[in-house]
Specification:
Number of strands: 6
Order of helices and strands: EEEEHHEHEH
Strand order of the largest sheet: 5-1-4-6
Shape: globular
Distance between the termini: 29 Å
Mean pLDDT: 93
Oligomer: single chain
Radius of gyration: 14 Å
Strand content: 25-35%
Amino acid sequence: MKTEHNIPGRSGVYLLVIAVCRDIVVETRSRKFRINRGFYIYVGSARGPGGLRARINRHLRREKKLFWHIDYLLSNPNTEIVLIYYRIVEEKDDLESRIATILNNYLPGIKGFGCSDKTRDYSHLYWCGYSITSCINELIGILKDQI
């Protein structure tokens, strides 16, 4: 997949809309997650060196050392990132958890996925249907007045 080079190298939060074309099981070092086909929204943050640019470009690469839950999901050939949204945020703002909490009120989440470091969060991966158009419209509707 082509990487985007104009993504800022600053800290921020990002959303990935991911297409899963068939039911899969994602097995990490310590967990197994059943992921049904459809479109998913993943909420993540980038606070390390290289910020959003480094983190998003990492997600766009299939070949990488598997570390986070999302790495295991995206390394599966039955998945593809179809949309990326990001926002630069200050270090003190936990927009990642706020978005995850908002999505949890509207969409079914994969319990414990992507939030090992955010124990109060239910999930950072939410199923949003079988249509990319409906998924994006729903995401906009959910978040437009809340973030």
